[in-house]
Design goal:
With about 100 residues, the protein is an alpha+beta fold. It is built from 2 helices and 4 strands, in the order αββββα.
């Protein structure tokens, strides 16, 4: 009897794993589905060919619409975080000092 219960639990887990795998494959093949590129948290995955910008402080590549920006008229500088932006703004003379 115990063998039958364990076998049925194992088959149930195996069936669920295979069905989730198949659902993922089908969802990945549906390129026309607008929700196919959505993550579980609701944010969308950027499309291919999106131009990314580089943070001058840490070198991280970020999307321009998600980055922090400083503009001085002609030039725009993009940052991945507030810390990198503040580090960029800080004068070089205070770089080595500690408070």
């Amino acid at each position: 009897m115990l063998r039958f219960i364990l076998l049925s639990i194992l088959l149930t887990i195996l069936f669920r794993a295979v069905s989730r795998l198949w659902a993922g494959v089908v969802r990945g093949m549906q390129s026309g589905n607008p929700s196919a590129g959505r993550r579980s948290d609701g944010s969308s995955v950027p499309q291919r060919g999106v131009q990314m910008v580089r943070d001058p402080v840490c070198g991280t590549f970020v999307l321009p619409d998600r980055a922090l920006m400083i503009g001085d008229g002609r030039d725009r500088v993009y940052f991945c975080s507030d810390a990198c932006r503040d580090k960029f703004r800080r004068p070089a003379s205070t770089e080595g000092r500690t408070a």
